[in-house]
Structure formats: C-alpha cells, structure tokens
Amino acid sequence: MIHVGLNIRGTKYCTHFKSLSLLCSFILNDSSTQEGEILPPTIQRLMKGYNKYLRPFFDNGPVTVGMSLDIASIDTISEINMDYTATIFLRQRWTDERLVFEGNKSLSLDGRLVELLWVPDTFIVDSKKSFLHDITVENRLIRIFPNGTVLYALRITTTVACNMDLTKYPMDKQTCTLQLESWGYNINDVMFYWTRGNESVSGLDTLQLAQYTVEDHYTSVSEAVYETGHYPRLVFHFELKRSILYFILETYVPSSLLVVLSWVSFWISLSSVPARICIGVTTVLTMTTLMMGARTSLPNANCFIKAIDVYLGICFSFIFGALIEYAVAHFCTLTHPDAHLLMYGHQMHDMDDEMNGMVTTISTHSNRAKRRKEPSVPSTPAPASTELTVSPSKPANWCLTTLATLRKILRFVSCCHIKNPHHIDNYSRVTFPLSFVMVNLLYWTYYLYF
C-alpha cells in the first residue's frame, strides 16, 4: 500500500516537475522491485504457473473434500419463522498436487491470500441469511501442508430453515438439518465426505439452549439431484427436545387452577345468583385471555392442532360446563312445584337433623299403635260362577304391547325427572373432578408416550 502511494505520488510529481524525473524513475523501479517481494520465496515458487480457476486433478478424476463442523452457538430457534440461527466453524480439507513442497512444516498464510488459491464452492442449503465474520479481519484460515493438503476454515453465522411438526407442542421433538452442497461442481468433479463420521461435528455436548436440549445428532452423505446433474451433499442432523417445565408453570398449572376455581360454585347455594354467576363468568373470561396469550408465540396461520390447544380447549369446556350446570340447576329450581320451599327451605335442613330424627321416631310409634287398634277385615273370595274365560284377540295383543312400551318410556322419563334440583350440585361435586382427572390421564398418556 505504501509503495502504491509512492508510485502514484511520484508519477504526479513527474508530470508537473521535469526536474524530478530521475527521482521518479528511482521510485518506480524500487516499487516494482518491492512488489515482487511481497510473497515469500516458497509461496512464489508454488504460485508460479498456478491457475486458481482450475480445480485440482483437473484431468485425473474428482477432488475429494473432507469437512468438519464446530457448532459455536445456536442463538435462536423460531417456531413462527420455522428456522434457527447458528454460528459455526466450517473446516474443509482437500489435496492440491500443485501445492506440494519440500519440508516438514505446514505454512499458515494470511486469510486474504485465499484469493490466490482454488477453494470449493460450498454453500449452505436452505440458508435464509448468512454472513462471514470480518472483525477485525475476515475470519478465514489457510494452511498448506507439504503433501499439498489445504486446510480452509471459516467462521459463519447462518439462519437455516427447519420444518417443524408442532402437533405435540410443547411436548414436541424437532429434527433440524444443516446441509452442505457444492454449487457448480457435480459428483464427477468434487466428492464430499465427513472427515471423522459422526464425530466430525463437535460443540453440541456443551451447548446451552433456552428451551431445548440436544437429544441426538448424526451425519449422513447424500446426493442432490437437479436438472443440471448430481451434486455432492453432506447433511448434519440434530434432534431437539423442548423443555416443558416453562409451559407447565406458565400455562398448564394456571388453566388447571381455573378449572378447580370454577368448581367452587358447586358449594354455593342456588339462591346466591350473583356469586355463582360472577365465578362462572370470571373464570370463562380469564380462560379466554389465557388461551389468547398462549397463541401469541406461535404462527397465526398453520394447519397444526397443537397439544397445548387441546388442553386449553378441555379446560375451557369444563369451566363453561360449570357455568351451564348452574343455569340448568337454577332453571329446574324455578320450574319445580315447590320452588319457594326449595329456594329457602333447604338452608334449614342441616340445622334440623336432630329434630327430624326425633319426629320420625315418634311418628313411627304412633303408626304402630293405630295398626293394633284397627280391626282386621277378611278378604271375600269371588264366586266361582262369575269367572269367565276370555281368549284375547290379535288387536288386543297389539294394544297390550303398545301399552307396555309406553309404560317403559314413561318409567324411563320418570327416572330422569329431577325430584330435587339441589342434587345436581351434589352430583357435580363428584362427576366434574373425576371427569377432569380421567381426561388428564388420557391426555398426558397420549402425548407423552404415543
């Protein structure tokens, strides 16, 4: 850079001042001499006749490129955008027969000299946005070994798409991939391979993620088939399991407590209309707010019915059912023939248990005394002459069958008839909790083990 500046400045002075022509010629000659001494002699010999536009083994089969990864960090995993952002160290190795030199030590070069060498045209498949770190200089590493092996390392931050199945959210497991592929060289020119198999990727064991834990990871080798040919591809798979503790404290526990809170109305008198309506409406509105808040962190438009949506729907149904239960019980109380006694008389039932027991005992003894004083009336048998033998006809049989069917229907309706509407609350105190426990057992068993 200094010599170039001197060269330009000397040329300017030569143009305007003829007396400095000798100085100009000296600077120009010195500049050309120094430019040839930028590279050390070993690199000069290697670069002599080197063509970076031709791959190694141009006429002798494909060049094999080994790759390895070091995952520095996984910054964000977004369910809304269905992608993840990671910072990786990508290392590539290949052999270039044109770079063989004598010696037993490798040459570590400045990363800016990569412009003088041939490098693979590797790119990240499904990458939405990527950049190479350049502070304080471009984060590149070039190392040449005596046998012509080249080590090329990069530090990259990339945002990669990851298709997620959210049907079991937040008890889901997601498998994401990082795919490396050659852009212009097909399998006849370049072959990719992992240098150490599954151990070619490191850094995941010590990685700390906010919502996930890395369950498993492995590597694979495949080919990408396009209209222009078959291209080498390396795929790194890693499985992420979501931590459910946050969602239990944030969503599952509050929604379950709201369901339990709605059951408090079963222990409040049917005559306390404002209290029971207030509990029912408040729990319904709170549950609605909780459901809306749980969906803000997820895509608005998707085809997934998530596990958390199912649970919130179950809780909302139980809360709404408790409100409907009071409406039915109150309606049955108002339509009962003894509505006035049912609304206010039942409040004295618990206070009069002892008195009722005494009255019942006295009435029993009085009934027994009356039966002893009443004379027994013998039953008179009917005269035998009045007995008639009648054989029923077919229409009579049909009528009897119809009457029997109607009696069964009426008996069933009478069984369903609510004699005391206050028993609805008594039944609800048992059926609602038992049903909620059974539904929870089915829910957690299905989503955790199936």
From TrEMBL:
Belongs to the ligand-gated ion channel (TC 1.A.9) family. Gamma-aminobutyric acid receptor (TC 1.A.9.5) subfamily. GABRP sub-subfamily. Keywords: Cell membrane, Chloride, Chloride channel, Disulfide bond, Glycoprotein, Ion channel, Ion transport, Membrane, Signal, Transmembrane, Transmembrane helix, Transport. CDD domains: LGIC_ECD_GABAAR_pi (cd19004). One of its GO terms (cellular component) is chloride channel complex. This is Gamma-aminobutyric acid receptor subunit pi. Residues 43-243 form the Neurotransmitter-gated ion-channel ligand-binding domain. Residues 364-391 are annotated as: Disordered. Residues 376-386 have a biased composition (Low complexity). It is a multi-pass membrane protein. The chain crosses the membrane at residues 244-268, 274-298, 310-329, 430-449. Residues 251-340 form the Neurotransmitter-gated ion-channel transmembrane domain. It comes from Cyprinodon variegatus. GO terms for molecular function: GABA-A receptor activity; GABA-gated chloride ion channel activity. It is found in: Apical cell membrane. Pi subunit of the heteropentameric ligand-gated chloride channel gated by gamma-aminobutyric acid (GABA). GABA-gated chloride channels, also named GABA(A) receptors (GABAAR), consist of five subunits arranged around a central pore and contain GABA active binding site(s) located at the alpha and beta subunit interfaces. When activated by GABA, GABAARs selectively allow the flow of chloride anions across the cell membrane down their electrochemical gradient. Pi-containing GABAARs are mostly located in peripheral tissues. InterPro entries: GABAA/Glycine_rcpt, Neur_chan_lig-bd, Neur_chan_lig-bd_sf, Neur_channel, Neuro-gated_channel_TM_sf, Neuro_actylchol_rec, Neurotrans-gated_channel_TM, Neurotransmitter_ion_chnl_CS. It comes from the Eukaryota. Heteropentamer, formed by a combination of alpha (GABRA1-6), beta (GABRB1-3), gamma (GABRG1-3), delta (GABRD), epsilon (GABRE), rho (GABRR1-3), pi (GABRP) and theta (GABRQ) chains, each subunit exhibiting distinct physiological and pharmacological properties. It catalyses: chloride(in) = chloride(out).
